[in-house]
Amino acid sequence: MSWWKQSVVYQIYPRSFKDTDGDGIGDLRGVTEQLDYLARLGPDVLWLCPVYASPNVDNGYDISDYRAIMPEFGTMDDFRALLAGVHERGMRLIMDLVVNHTSDQHEWFRQARSARDNPHREFYIWRPPAADGGPPNNWGSHFGGSAWTLDEGTGEYYLHLFAPEQPDLNWAHPPVRQAVYDMMRFWVDLGIDGFRMDTINMLSKHPDLPDVALTSTPYPIAEEHFLNGPHLHEYLREMKREVLSHYDLLTVGETPGVDPVQATEFTHPDRGTLSMIFQFDHMRLDTDRTHWAPRWTSTPWTLADLRALLGRWQRELHGRGWNSLYLSNHDVPRMVSRFGNDGPYRAESAKLLATLLFTLQGTPYIYQGDELGMTNVHFASIGDYRDVDALNFYREARFDRQLDEAEVMAMIWRKSRDNARTPFPWNASANGGFTTGVPWMPLNPNYPQINAEEAQRDPASVYAYYQQLIRMRRAHAALVDGRYDALLDDHPSLYVYTRTLGKTQVLTVLNFSTQTCAWPSDLALRPGAQQLIGNYGPEPALDLRPYEARVYLQPSAAS
Ligand code: ISL
User: Fold this and answer.
1) Which of 139, 220, 250, 476 could bridge across to 4 with cysteines, CB 3.0–4.6 Å?
2) Is the distance from CB of 230 to CB of 264 less than 8 angstroms?
């Protein structure tokens, strides 16, 4: 069986993990220094967000040299030392692969914009201005405004689905693809164990780049014209042939707007190209899609919707594909603040959400700090936010649309990516022990209470619970391969399901509520059932307390 199916992945956002040289920015030596912390927690795989040379318009997702380490993060020797340290501890390391776009400071783009007949011109996507001199179509950038920027020097517009400093590569041009494959071989030959592929289903744009037809905003996100485009799978098959098939790697594609049927095309055990994907359905559960900026909205979500949506993925991928299990990452708010309760039930709900991730089918991902139950931040001033996405949104909302300060800040508090990017709190000392200098962004002010030192001291901490979950996952094959069946589908606050493999069954009972809930009369444990884990300790009351999570092992009907 593929090792990555049994693995647990831990995502590191290096800028905010650990600073060792006092410049206020996390670095590779910081990760190496804390490898024992990670090994004690117990994941099998570390995913390192981009560490390549970058002007950091989008914190490393704008790469200016794919074969060099960002000087703020260290050197290639630091990287080799980190990789060796990971392998010495029996873990593996995967890297971010950001090849939908480069930085505008990448040598390819410098060449491309230098003249229309430059050989690198075709590495990017250029179009002449529209008749009125404006952008060639109405596509919007994910970070606001048009997805096109006029290059004054050569008189044409270039496409950027993200910031203007992130021009999209032209994957229809074969030399682009070969250059990417070469670069991938370079990293795999250094010894890395796989890739997390950024926005991988945006590579193939509709060849005619048509306008978005019906739109209420001037610059809509043209997903229908760039997600899962006509040549995407052809490119991925080529990548597999050229690179991936020659190694034993974990590959995870970030694929917004993919449904379970499409997901099997990427990850089918026989004909797929990637190990697994990140799907986004549950990330859209609490958003108002009719709003001009859907990602910044927060609408109430229901357990019924979450259950239906996760259940659909569980059923449709079983035996046909493979999923990642995540509730947070560096692009979304903290999971406990978004899907749990970051007030009185912070620890309980953080553990409940983790229990969900570790008992479904797929590969669980832990985002840095979630093992401490870290929460969102409410910085009073926009001046404390760093993310290009938040700053652009603030400008547009406040100044173009004249929304009031309180309303805009409330949206930023709930949905900003910076919620997940505050520096890691190692202990209760100044700046959480993250840096001896001035941190590149402020820490969450709750770091004196929520920090790694405290978590490791407390046997009832969220951290200790994650350690148990990781051990539990390893011990029970049903958690990897078992079939998913939902029970009590209409229950208003309980999410209950089983995972069945041969003679064993794992039963998970999650109370998604601040109220105690009676144990349902139609839910019977089988004779011989034993509890594997629970977030209220080993001897639970019969009733399910607020945010209580329990997992049982029991014989299946087949036994
Ligand atoms: O399209 C989306 C949701 O429907 C977006 O969430 C989009 O998929 C996401 O922003 C892509 O994120 C990745 O690429 C970005 C980078 O800023 C993010 O940090 C990265 O995870 C551009 O490289």
Assistant:
1) 250
2) no
